[in-house]
Amino acid sequence: MKTEFDINTLARKNVRELTPYQSARRLGGNGSVWLNANEYPIAPDFTFNEKNLNRYPECQPVNVINRYAAYVGVNANQVLVSRGADEAIELLIRAFCEPGKDAVLYCPPTYGMYSVSAETFGIEQRVVPTLADWSPDVKAIASQLDNVKLIYLCSPNNPTGNIVNPSLIRDVLALAKDKAIVAVDEAYIEFCPQASIVSWLEDYPNLVILRTLSKAFALAGLRCGFALANPPVIELLLKVIAPYPLSTPVADIAAQALTEASIEIMKKRAAEITRNRSILSDMLKKLPNVEQVYNSETNYILVKFTDANLVFRTLWEQGIILRDQQRQYGLNGCLRISIGTAEECDSVINAIKNIQTANV
Ligand SMILES: *Cc1c(COP(=O)(O)O)cnc(C)c1O
What we know:
Layout: H1 13-16, H2 24-27, E1 33-34, H3 62-72, E2 79-82, H4 84-96, E3 103-106, H5 113-120, E4 124-127, H6 138-143, E5 148-154, H7 166-176, E6 181-185, E7 207-212, E8 225-228, H8 231-240, H9 248-257, H10 260-285, E9 290-293, E10 300-305, H11 308-317, E11 320-321, E12 323-324, E13 334-338, H12 342-359
Parallel strand pairs: 1-11, 3-4, 3-5, 5-6, 6-7
Antiparallel strand pairs: 2-8, 7-8, 9-10, 10-13, 12-13
Helix pairs in contact: 4-5, 4-8, 10-12, 11-12
The protein binds pyridoxal-5'-phosphate.
């Protein structure tokens, strides 16, 4: 028998051992009601204005940068646009962390890409679990900071839905002063805009804020995100970004999504999702197999069930796809449900109620 050469032996060790991010799309499912990726349920409409695809795009399309800067109230030189916030998560590692020397720190349960990106680059991970109320354990963070160059905090946090207390973010920024970047992931901030810490940029040279068009802007398929920081940090990130991170159609649509009129529509969308969230949450609280519905400031809610596996599997078989969070730190029994249309929320409730009656 011919023994095949195993190409895996050529791969980097950390890549051989890497478990790729289990994105909602990779997990599959045969759904009609997609509530597992925190997307907006309805596609917004756009036109293609830029048709000259023979030319390379701008690295940092000026319209997109200027409009995003105006939207958040910062200067254009404090904005970097990237291929989704996920690329910005990775650019921070590329710019600040040396394999075998530096570490990144994050606080589970939280977004999975901090870990995946660190692993991909062979960067040590300091994992400091949150306290029981999901706030960062500042004391533990203080004792784990040796060689840490980058701290990820997610506020509001995915998948728990809570805002991180701003005074604790200040504590972490103080600990990290002159030592590490603190990246605050505000992917869901449009659902609780008052909680943004963008105005802190003038006080903290080591603060980076991550943003995206994937959630409240309803453009997950566009792949467009942002890093907000002071100009010296932006300049470092621009050194390591791909030469053409955004294709011309992406920049074209992102610019349209950031006009004042489009931002008003986004705000209406976010308000509608927030209303649906409180209706869904109230209905869930009345179900006997629901142990807890956690408060959320986002477009999803985390729910603890007495029979999470049964709920997940039964709804999956009916084409209602939720996100199982049970392998996350401390989240046994928990499923995450994205807020869809009112009809989609109803179908979730009815499907869960039917399990109840089927079991009696
Ligand atoms: C969805 C999400 C992102 C990724 O956003 P993209 O712009 O789609 O890459 C980043 N952080 C958190 C917490 C998210 O939930």
